Amino acid sequence: MVIEVDSELEAALATTASASGTTPEAVALAVLRQRFLPKPPFVPRDDWERRLLAIGKDCGVSLSNKTFSREEIYE
Fold first, then answer.
1. 16/13 Cα distance (integer angstroms)
2. Which of 14, 17, 44, 73 stands 20 to 30 A from 62 (CA)?
3. pTM score, whole prediction
């Protein structure tokens, strides 16, 4: 894949790259990876943590605290 950037973006990449001691291509790749490849929120350190994460499942959104208030339960 080839991505063409304008001179303003190229200058910004070059400035950032020289400040961090790397190439503009590496800066662009790092930003694209950070933006488009989701990073897991928690990286398991051992087998126990891996098994714990494996049994969990996404149940959608959590209910608000108001849902469980005394007033809401009895209405």
1. 5
2. 44
3. 0.51
Concatenate the DSSP letters of all residues of 16-61 into one string.
HHHHHTS-HHHHHHHHHHHHHSPPPS----SHHHHHHHHH-----S
Length of the chain: 75
Return the structure tokens found at 29: 């790749």
Instruction: Give the three-class secondary structure for 10.
Output: helix
Asked if 24 and 10 count as a contact pair (C-beta separation under 8 A), the reply is yes
Check: CB of residue 28 under 8 Å from CB of residue 17: no
Q: What is the pLDDT of residues 23-66, one digit of tens each?
A: 999 999 999 988 888 777 778 899 998 898 888 877 777 777 77
CA dihedral 6, 12, 13, 18 (to 10 degrees): 140
